[in-house]
Amino acid sequence: RIASLEPLALVVIHDEIRTDLASTMGELLAHGVEVKIISGDHPQTVRGVATRVGLPAAPVLLESELAQLSGPAFDQAVRATAIFARTTPAMKRHIIASLAHQGQYVAMVGDGINDVPALKEARLGTAMNDGAQIAKDVSDLVLLQSTLSTLPHALTEGRSITQKIYVSARLYLSRNAMTVLAIV
User: Fold this and answer.
1) With helix as H, strand as E and coil as C, how does the chain read?
2) Which candidate among 68, 93, 126, 158 keeps its CA 20 to 30 Å from the CA of 174?
3) What are the per-10-residue average pLDDT scores of the chain (184 residues)?
């Protein structure tokens, strides 16, 4: 019976990836940013997207595997893994909290309701303008044009400003120390 069937159509479903994402990931990696993907999608889908944007091939860790770990073992797995799949909003939040607890400066980019707990947990929550309103409401930064390509530029500017503040503070403290020394 199957031999008598004739195919009528072929349907292919794939995620559209933003055109600037591969170059943005390359710039972030060049700046020393450790990129992690935390997704609720199927592991093969997440790995495929990571490969298409130029992230190094890495094993995928599922929530079911993470749930079996606790304490230092959980923290070590989170630190060593770059791609997480089949994660719930609560696990996304737990992963972000673990990284922050380990002393990492954690920035989270999300656009959906399921990202809200993790966005709130991150030190810098970033939402896409075309994402869910609640994600934008809880984020520290909203990318108005919904493009990640502005992040490497923001990182460069932030580091430049921080360096200038450091130099100014050092100069100010030196001047004050010399004034106190002159008075004494």
Assistant:
1) CHHHCCCCCCCCCCCCCCCCHHHHHHHHHHCCCCCCEECCCCHHHHHHHHHHCCCCCCCEEEHHHHCCCCHHHHHHHHHHCCEEECCCHHHHHHHHHHHHHCCCCCEEEECCHHHHHHHHHCCEEEEECCCCHHHHHHCCEEECCCCCCHHHHHHHHHHHHHHHHHHHHHHHHHHHHHHHHHHC
2) 158
3) 80 81 91 93 91 87 94 95 95 96 95 94 94 95 90 92 93 90 91
Residues recorded for the chain: 184
Instruction: Answer yes or no: pTM beyond 0.85.
Output: no
For residues 3 and 57, give the distance between their C-alpha atoms in angstroms, rounded to a whole number.
40
CA–CA separation, 105 and 143 (whole Å): 19
Task: At 34, list the tokens.
Answer: 């450790």
